[in-house]
């Protein structure tokens, strides 16, 4: 099936546009991004992708789809985010049909996504709700690599893309986000002089995740000398939480009203995940979650109001990071870093 972008530009023109970058023999992967109709991760309504061969994008596109019937309704928040409406997907195939189109592109290549725990988790959940088998592929996370290889106050896709001079046409457009995730991956590889996904993982001290028909294991960070977690849970947090969870071991402050929960509920949630909530930003804070609709997509936003304390601590050498509420929720949604299909 011809992709949206192939139909728009033609494959020859697409190839000519993407062959400007240096050829890296064997640097092959498929980046992906999904958008959802509502708060359920399984409500996939759009799938974007970019195929990279020898370090250059050779194909890209996106498809709309109807989410699994059980989670097929659209929430206003999501519609405002990506602009996809129920009418736009009404005549489109179901998710399970579009997944087959994506897997035709993936074949035996590794998959990359920016915040892969969300995108791969969405695919797992949508497959479960559609009563179809999980696909099998290895996958990496450009968000995790960015956190390990860059020193930024925020690691959202727009922020990382801006830092690396990567073009991002329209955030939350599935194709644009998939293309940006691919280009971020290539930019990180060039910055650190690596030539394959495996070399990039080694440089960032991470391991690829893997999804199979029966189980999954998320992307993981590793220590220099072993495979354990580099952090310990704070004394007040759940000591039995998954040490590979991205919030495990963090000291987290919250500022501004959260639309999704009350402040104490947020403290209780992060404690269950092995983090501890703090009522103020201090030298020990590692993550600051800002509510009140804070978007944080440009550096200028971090020098106004509520993010200023984080900037001041960073200027003093403290590696505090800022999360928006949607970023926080996407991390918190994945309560485990591995599992089996029930």
From TrEMBL:
GO terms for cellular component: cytosol. Residues 28-194 form the Exonuclease domain. It holds the Pfam family RNase_T. InterPro entries: BRCT_dom_sf (IPR036420), Ribonucl_H (IPR013520), RNaseH-like_sf (IPR012337), RNaseH_sf (IPR036397). SMART domains: EXOIII. GO terms for molecular function: 3'-5' exonuclease activity; nucleic acid binding. SUPFAM superfamilies: BRCT domain, Ribonuclease H-like. This is DNA polymerase III subunit epsilon. It comes from Mycolicibacterium arabiense. The lineage of its organism: Bacteria, Bacillati, Actinomycetota, Actinomycetes, Mycobacteriales.
């Amino acid at each position: 099936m011809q992709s949206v972008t192939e139909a728009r530009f033609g494959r020859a023109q697409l190839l000519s546009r993407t062959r400007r970058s240096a050829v890296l023999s064997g640097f092959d992967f498929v980046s992906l991004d999904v958008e959802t109709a509502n708060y359920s991760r399984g409500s996939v309504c759009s799938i974007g992708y970019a195929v990279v061969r020898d370090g250059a994008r050779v194909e890209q596109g996106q498809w709309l789809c109807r989410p699994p019937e059980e989670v097929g309704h659209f929430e206003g928040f999501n519609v405002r985010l990506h602009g996809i409406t129920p009418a736009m997907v009404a005549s489109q195939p179901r998710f399970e049909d579009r997944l087959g189109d994506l897997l035709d592109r993936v074949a035996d290549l590794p998959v990359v996504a920016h915040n892969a725990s969300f995108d791969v988790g969405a695919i797992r959940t949508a497959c479960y709700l559609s009563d179809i088998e999980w696909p099998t592929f290895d996958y990496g996370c450009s968000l995790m690599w960015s956190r390990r290889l860059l020193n930024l106050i925020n690691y959202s896709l727009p922020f990382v893309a801006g830092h690396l001079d990567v073009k991002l046409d329209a955030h939350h457009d599935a194709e644009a986000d998939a293309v940006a995730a691919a280009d971020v991956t290539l930019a990180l590889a060039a910055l650190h002089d690596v030539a394959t996904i495996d070399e990039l993982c080694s440089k960032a001290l991470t391991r690829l995740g893997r999804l199979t028909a029966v189980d999954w294991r998320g992307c993981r960070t590793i220590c220099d000398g072993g495979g354990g977690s580099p952090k310990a849970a704070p004394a007040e947090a759940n000591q039995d939480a998954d040490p590979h969870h991205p919030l495990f071991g963090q000291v987290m402050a919250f500022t501004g009203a959260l639309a999704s929960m009350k402040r104490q509920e947020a403290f209780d949630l992060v404690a269950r995940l092995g983090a501890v909530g703090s009522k103020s930003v201090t030298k020990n804070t590692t993550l600051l979650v800002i509510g009140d609709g804070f978007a944080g997509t440009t550096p200028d936003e971090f020098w106004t109001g509520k993010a200023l304390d984080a900037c001041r601590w960073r200027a003093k050498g403290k590696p505090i990071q800022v999360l928006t509420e949607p970023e926080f929720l996407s991390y918190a949604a994945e309560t485990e870093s591995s599992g089996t299909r029930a």
